[in-house]
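Bumping with the actual sequence this time:
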Amino acid sequence: MNENIVKRNELLAQKVIKGLESRNMTGYYAADKAEALKKALELIPEGATVAMGGAMSAHEIGLVDAVKSGNYRFIDRDAVADKRAAMMDSYDADVFLASTNAMTEDGVLINIDGNSNRVSMIAQGPKKVVFIVGMNKVCKDVDSAMKRARNVAAPINAQRFGLKTPCSATGSCMNCKSPDTICCQILITRYSRHAGRIHVILVNDDLGF
C-alpha cells in the first residue's frame, strides 16, 4: 500500500478511536491483517463461546479459521440443520464476531440486516462484540455512512446471496419493498451503555464490502 495512504489511514484511525472512546466503545488500529488477527485473538478468552454473523472481514483476516481450530466453542450456524436454534444459542455467546457496513469518523456504526439476527446481537445479547473493520468503511458522517451501507454494502451482499432485489440488478439502492430485501432493519450504534462490550479493530486494508 502507498505510504501516503498508510499515513492517512493511521491518522484517521486515531480520530475514529477517539470517537469510539467518547461513545463508551474501544478502538484499536492494526497495520495489517496479521496484526488485526493477533489483536482479535487477544480479545477472545480461551474456552469462550464464539458466534458470528456473515462477517466477511473476519474471514479475510483468518479469524474464523483460527477460532474454529482453536480452544473455543464456535457456534457455526452454517454447519447445523436447525439454524434458528444456533441463532438463539448465539445470543448467550461470550463473544460475537462482526464487521460493519459503514462507520463514521467519530465512531458511529451503521449496520443493515435482512434476518436481523446480526443487528439484534450487536445491540444486545453476547457479552462482547468484536468488530473487524477495514479502513475502506470509514465515512465522514452518518449520512455518508448510511449511503455507503445502502448503495455499496447492500447491493453487493444481495448479489452475493443471489437475491432478487432491484439493487442486485442496478447496483444501487432503490428503497425497495422486495420480499428478498436485506434492508429490513437498520441499526445505528452511537453509544454503548456497557463499558468493555464493543471493541472495534480498524485494519489498514480494504476488507469486506
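The C-alpha cells above came from a reply further down the thread. The chain has a mean pLDDT of 96.
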